[in-house]
Amino acid sequence: MLGDAEATVRDIYPNISAAIDVPEEDALFCDRIHVTEVFVNIIKNAAEAMGEKGMIGITGKYNKAQLKYKYQLQFEDSGEGIDTDRVADVFKPYSSSKNREKNLGLGLSYCRNAIIAHGGRIFVVESVRGEGTTIGIDFPSRRVRCSAAAARDI
């Protein structure tokens, strides 16, 4: 799903690349269409925040210490960041810092609803104005199969 999303965004933004650090053995059991669309939306937002050029870091990690959410994906960009007073609103419908003629502000709201439907959560891990934003998505254990090494080592 991540590869599909990255390829889709690369077609739109050829100067964007993604460094994906997710073990190949890690698998998500989700609706492929909806979750791929979530990934595309997050990567597109990051691309736009970086001026349509740059690198997006995507990491995945298993966390056996967490009770409910066992797996987290993080999407990190080096874009403009989100103002502190707007972070709480980014997943609300019609919330957007972009041009209203081209954007309705429904993308991250859709992402939130799709991830909640999968029993997960999506949130801003960190955002620093002028330095970038990291978005996190937590998945419950029933949606994830990790490599044996990841489950044992973390």
Describe this structure in words.
- With 154 residues, the protein is of the alpha+beta class.
- The chain has a single domain (2-153), classed as Histidine kinase-like ATPase, C-terminal domain (Heat Shock Protein 90, 2-Layer Sandwich).
- Helix content is 30%, strand content 29%.
- The protein has four helices and seven strands; from the N terminus they run H-E-E-H-E-E-H-E-E-E-H.
- It has helices at 2-12, 32-49, 107-117, 148-153, and strands at 16-21, 27-28, 54-62, 69-76, 121-128, 132-140, 144-145.
- The chain has a five-stranded mixed beta sheet with strand order 1-3-4-6-5. It has a two-stranded antiparallel sheet with strand order 2-7.
- A hairpin with a 6-residue loop joins strand 3 (54-62) and strand 4.
- Helix 1 packs across helix 2 and helix 2 (32-49) packs antiparallel against helix 3 (107-117).
- It is globular.
- The two termini are 23 Å apart.
- The mean pLDDT is 86.
